[in-house]
């Protein structure tokens, strides 16, 4: 490959693009890798396409090495199979739907569990056809409420989705482990520092799932680690260790006038000031905060739900949604319509709506909480005696220092990451729905169990840029760089000619070359552009050309070394190893 | 590459699929290359995906060799740019439209002239940035009224679309010629026998265009050649040579009672029987047939239009639509609502609707035609005297033997083909609309002129299958076959092991190998499957394995030769040369 910048569709920008909030987005636009074409839609320019192609090739190669077989499904599908599994409704607004000329409903498939399962049903008959690992690489469409960060979260993106079918639980676990190892290898080859964290399965359904997060400040996902053990989880998946239930020792519930205390802080201050219940050491964690939310179940009437949690915690709606998925959740704000819900003074006693409590609200715990009358609170409101929640819910924010739910000894630390992969043990959700049965080794019918495995390919490009840049520009890992070497002709005529000759020689040796042969651009601009573009290795053909020397520059370390022109090919070939 | 049939997702079918009308569709389904997933939507199974990937790679390579730069645009685009050019409306029902969650109109772009032109406007500034040749490879969606033939015409297909921008007419012509040559090279490499024919531009707009048609009985396009010169054109693009206008010598128009003659045949019979106008040699070509159609202009009220043509010709609605594009045309059938249009007795005299005539209806020609009264016709109805058409139209069917419009000496011959490529000189339609101007060499603004160039990649797979099969199955050209060699282990155990060993050795040598290592399948079934799958070369590891021999089979010629096992790699490597 020999690309010439004199003809390349490339325009680098000195100024920051106005709509770019994250470094990868800014740099990919400034360096001419991508360009905005539509809301949440980006065009890959030639250099961006080359990077995406290299990322895709690595993923494809590793999937095949793991026994994957590549297929390609239509993206535009009729509604029917998605109605059968309920996902037509569950996906809600995220789904792009399309009516054809006859008015028939179609969707742009977000993922293809239904279709792969129907194909497997169609094309298999017995245990001899299993296990199966199938994948495709396809453009996906999602009607995101908020797109973000260029390729990070768009309405259209390239995805590798894979589906496995095994005949036993042990088989699924083995395939899942192989895919997990394959993903680690893929992300390592892509140069992505990543964490593997426990996750919740969301609209996919199924039992176990893990996310691969590329660590990045700008990541939308927060994940926790433990200071002692190797526990790692998406905050949505963090479970709160419940203390043991205790015997009731508290006196009877007592109601107090607490005017003007709709907030926890004002309540605690007043409780200590008035020594409610004879105590002056009230803390926010002694109070029970009751938050009302509206749960939007797909295809059903919204539900008003109350959530109780220790007063020192905020509700984390992402965690609530993870539990209630596929429903979405918003804060309830129509208190005028519900006189039974006294804003700021709600208690769990005699609530007329469903009430779910934090796992820490175990039987026997006594709380300072609302009395369901304006300006009044109650002390010694005891779980299991004065109220009984309809269930528990992981709704409270996770905080650094919280106890580790895995080992119990360590404390949680928190970091941010970009979700670049997600693997699921789906089990038989889909094979059950479509009644997929094949002949087992014992002559009886057996139902395959399923896994699914996704990688966001275009998002991976953004994640790589996020992890690999400095203040001068992009610094691509050699495995995905748009070229192996960037030859800069510092001056005109002779130097351009020498640069092109060198480029042709390297290209013949199988090296991917970009030559900056622009005749009317200064050396300074060319050097700045080379640093912005971030190809790992530059060769400057400049002042010392006449003496037979070129300068090698390392984009990452910024080191410069002079080498005889004749040695350049050898040095680079050795480096590419 | 080493594929093992024991684990490959493959199920060959002995019976014909019920819904398949054309050979390529039947064979691609039977051989397990594709499978129906939705109306007009096919899944590429592993072998089908491999063929499509090889086709794509050839196209990509030739496009880059021709100076093309690959980019990738979103497929889901906002309506606005397509409103500006009018194509939102012009495309009509073929366009899949999508509303996002905010109710904003989007489309699944059929082609990207608008977006490429806006990108070029955004990223260029002066003559130094030109010429430009950009392309992408993308899944396209079209809401076809009638899908057909598996991959031949689906609602979703893979397309390579390219766009060129030049600063002069001469530049466009040069680029167009380069793309034309590139396409010839591509289709030759794909093994596609093809014709290049003049075409009409349709909804693309622009001046000159040519289609590449893969010759095939089942093709939807009919094209003509000349027995003398090298003229070739799609029937839609055939022009009818107009005879010179003549002086009026005919007597005055005379009306006759002609009861029960609504058809041309009945009219001619009666005219001869009654010697109308003193003649008994009336032929259909002496009559003027007037056909009423409804023209559906996008975004406007339907228009009722009459078309006049010699009575020995039928109207070809595809030709009419090619002229009236982007309008669509149907036969008018609501004569009850129009008492002025007397079905079977319409004449061009005093018509109240627009009337377009065949080019043969030149001034001075006299016709036997309807008198606009039931049961009456008129003789000596003279063009230019008794009626004046509102214009001419190419509406008449083209027939073998018609005079060649290019040389005038030859006669037209007719064949059928599958449209696999289309190239257009668009000119400035799009750069005018978006007012794209760049700095010219003389310091003045210059407006780029545009070409566009498409290849249907998934359709090309079907066209190849259409041209390359026999009664036993597919016969892939070596350039696109899913594998280079198909090794058949005729028996069990030792032969399977030997086949896999040979396969591994060939694979290490860079040969793409499919091994039939199925343990429970008979040799006969394996041979039948090998012929159905159509990989160019088979190696049978069978009876003479113990003596160190294998059998080579040529799929096309069905020739068999025995060679020492040790020579197999050498023979195949030489063949792949």
TrEMBL record, chains A, B:
Catalytic activity: tRNA(Pro) + L-proline + ATP = L-prolyl-tRNA(Pro) + AMP + diphosphate
InterPro entries: aa-tRNA-synt_IIb, aa-tRNA-synth_II, aa-tRNA-synth_II/BPL/LPL, Anticodon-bd, Anticodon-bd_dom_sf, Pro-tRNA-ligase_IIa, Pro-tRNA-synth_IIa_bac-type, Pro-tRNA-Synthase_IIa_type1
Tree of life domain: Bacteria
Keywords from the UniProt entry: Aminoacyl-tRNA synthetase, ATP-binding, Cytoplasm, Ligase, Nucleotide-binding, Protein biosynthesis
Domain Aminoacyl-transfer RNA synthetases class-II family profile: 35-477
Gene Ontology process terms (BP): prolyl-tRNA aminoacylation
Chief place where the protein resides: cytoplasm
GO molecular function annotation: aminoacyl-tRNA deacylase activity; ATP binding; proline-tRNA ligase activity
Keyword Transferase: no
Function text: Catalyzes the attachment of proline to tRNA(Pro) in a two-step reaction: proline is first activated by ATP to form Pro-AMP and then transferred to the acceptor end of tRNA(Pro). As ProRS can inadvertently accommodate and process non-cognate amino acids such as alanine and cysteine, to avoid such errors it has two additional distinct editing activities against alanine. One activity is designated as 'pretransfer' editing and involves the tRNA(Pro)-independent hydrolysis of activated Ala-AMP.
Similarity field: Belongs to the class-II aminoacyl-tRNA synthetase family. ProS type 1 subfamily.
Subunit structure of this chain's protein: Homodimer.
Domain notes: Consists of three domains: the N-terminal catalytic domain, the editing domain and the C-terminal anticodon-binding domain.
Name the UniProt record assigns to this protein: Proline--tRNA ligase
Biological source species: Actinoplanes utahensis
């Amino acid at each position: 490959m020999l690309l010439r910048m004199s003809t390349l569709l490339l325009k680098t920008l000195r100024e920051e693009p106005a709509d770019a909030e994250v470094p990868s987005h800014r740099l990919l636009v400034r360096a001419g890798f991508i360009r905005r074409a539509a809301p949440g839609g980006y065009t890959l320019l030639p250099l961006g396409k080359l990077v995406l192609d290299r990322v895709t090739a690595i993923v494809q190669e590793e999937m095949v090495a793991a026994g994957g077989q590549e297929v390609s499904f239509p993206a535009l599908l009729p509604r029917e199979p998605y109605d059968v599994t309920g996902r037509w409704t569950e996906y809600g607004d995220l789904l792009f739907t399309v009516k054809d000329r006859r008015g028939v409903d179609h969707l742009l498939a977000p993922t293809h569990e239904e279709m792969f399962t129907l194909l497997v049903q169609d094309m298999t008959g017995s245990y001899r056809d299993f296990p199966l690992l199938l994948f495709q690489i396809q453009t996906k469409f999602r009607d995101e409420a908020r797109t973000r960060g260029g390729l990070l979260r768009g309405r259209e993106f390239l995805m590798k989705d894979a589906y496995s079918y095994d005949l036993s639980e042990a088989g699924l676990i083995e395939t899942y482990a192989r895919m997990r190892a394959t993903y680690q290898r893929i992300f390592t080859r892509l140069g992505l520092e990543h964490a593997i964290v426990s996750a919740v399965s969301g609209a996919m359904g199924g039992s176990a799932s893990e996310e691969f997060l590329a660590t990045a400040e700008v990541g939308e996902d927060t994940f926790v680690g433990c200071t002692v053990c190797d526990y790692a989880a998406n905050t949505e998946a963090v479970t709160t260790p419940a203390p043991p239930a205790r015997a009731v020792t508290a006196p009877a519930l007592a109601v107090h006038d607490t005017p003007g205390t709709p907030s926890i802080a004002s309540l605690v201050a007043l409780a200590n000031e008035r020594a409610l219940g004879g105590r002056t050491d009230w803390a926010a964690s002694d109070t029970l905060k009751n938050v009302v939310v509206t749960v939007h179940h797909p295809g059903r009437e919204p539900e008003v739900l109350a959530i109780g949690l220790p007063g020192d915690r905020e509700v984390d709606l992402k965690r609530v949604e993870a539990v209630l998925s596929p429903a979405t959740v918003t804060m309830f704000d129509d208190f005028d319509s519900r006189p039974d819900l006294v804003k700021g003074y709600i208690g769990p006693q005699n609530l007329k709506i469903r009430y779910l409590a934090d796992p820490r609200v175990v039987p026997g715990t006594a709380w300072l909480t609302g009395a369901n009358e304006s300006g009044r609170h109650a002390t010694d409101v005891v779980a299991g005696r004065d109220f009984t929640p309809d269930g528990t819910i992981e709704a409270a924010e996770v905080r650094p220092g919280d106890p580790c739910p895995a080992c119990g000894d360590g404390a949680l630390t928190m970091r941010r990451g970009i979700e670049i992969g997600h693997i699921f043990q789906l089990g038989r959700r889909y094979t059950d729905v479509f009644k997929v049965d094949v002949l087992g080794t014992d002559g009886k019918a057996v139902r395959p169990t399923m896994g699914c495995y996704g990688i966001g390919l275009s998002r991976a490009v953004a994640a790589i840029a996020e992890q690999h840049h400095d203040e001068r520009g992009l610094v691509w890992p050699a495995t995905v760089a748009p070229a192996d070497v960037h030859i800069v002709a510092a001056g005109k005529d002779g130097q351009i000619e020498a640069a092109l000759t060198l480029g042709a020689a390297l290209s013949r040796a199988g090296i991917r070359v970009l030559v900056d042969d622009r005749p009317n651009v200064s050396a300074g601009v060319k050097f700045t552009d080379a640093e912005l573009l971030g190809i790992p290795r530059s060769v400057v053909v400049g002042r010392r050309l006449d003496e037979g020397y070129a300068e090698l520059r390392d984009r990452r370390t910024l080191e410069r070394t002079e080498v005889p022109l004749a040695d350049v090919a050898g040095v680079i070939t050795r480096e590419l190893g």
